[in-house]
Amino acid sequence: MILSEHINGFGRLFGGRLMEWIDIVAGVVARRHCNHNITTVCIDKLHFKAPAHVNDIVVLHGKITYVGHTSMEVRVDTFVEDLNGRQRPINHAYVVMVAIDDNEKPTEVPGLILTNEQEKAEWEAGKRRSELRRQRRKDLF
């Protein structure tokens, strides 16, 4: 539930607070997938669609969409849920996490089993996002 301490000067959920919640959800999803500690590499494509206000119930859903050798991309969708249980989207983001070993070095993560066409499409999009991130790092962008 959004409390007054979560609100910015415009009476809306503070974007930084939502980013914190997104990072936590992505971390839990990634950690459960790889059974290792994780660290956030980047939050990519954070897209605000609608505001949330005091007393709104915020629901976050996280799902692994793509994995590399040591990294995992997690999509986090954020919704406001009304009293009837209907959810309307207010944000989605992609977060890249890296699994780390006991020496805080990157460690290999398990693959991802794709079970439907939507997951396969998300995987392909995740592969493209990964390539774009790699190119941006190379270009120092």
Describe the protein.
By secondary structure, this protein is an alpha+beta fold. The chain has a single domain, classed as Hotdog Thioesterase (Thiol Ester Dehydrase, Chain A, Roll), CATH 3.10.129. It has two helices and four strands; from the N terminus they run αββββα. It has helices spanning 15-34, 117-138; strands spanning 37-48, 57-67, 71-81, 87-100. A four-stranded antiparallel β-sheet has the order 1-4-3-2, with helices on both faces. Strand 2 (57-67) and strand 3 form a beta hairpin. It is globular and about 40 Å long. GO terms for molecular function: long-chain fatty acyl-CoA hydrolase activity. Belongs to the acyl coenzyme A hydrolase family. This is Acyl-CoA thioesterase. Keywords: Hydrolase. Residues 1-103 form the HotDog ACOT-type domain.
Helicity level: 25-40%
SSE arrangement, N to C: HEEEEH
Stretches where pLDDT is under 50 for at least 5 consecutive residues are: none
User: For the residues shown, what is the average pLDDT?
Assistant: 95
Apparent shape: globular
**Main β-sheet: number of strands, strand sense, barrel status?**
4 strands, antiparallel
Strand content: 25-35%
Number of discrete domains: 1
| CATH fold-level name | Thiol Ester Dehydrase, Chain A
What integer value in Å does the Rg equal? 16 Å
- CATH homology-level superfamily: Hotdog Thioesterase
Query: What is the CATH C level class, in words?
Result: Alpha Beta
* CATH architectural label: Roll
Number of strands: 4
- Taking the alpha carbons of the first and last residues, their distance comes to 37 Å
Report strand order across the widest sheet: 1-4-3-2
Please report the number of helical segments: 2
Structural class of the helices, strands and pairings? alpha+beta
GO molecular function: long-chain fatty acyl-CoA hydrolase activity
GO cellular component, one term: cytoplasm
Domain HotDog ACOT-type: 1-103
Family: Belongs to the acyl coenzyme A hydrolase family.
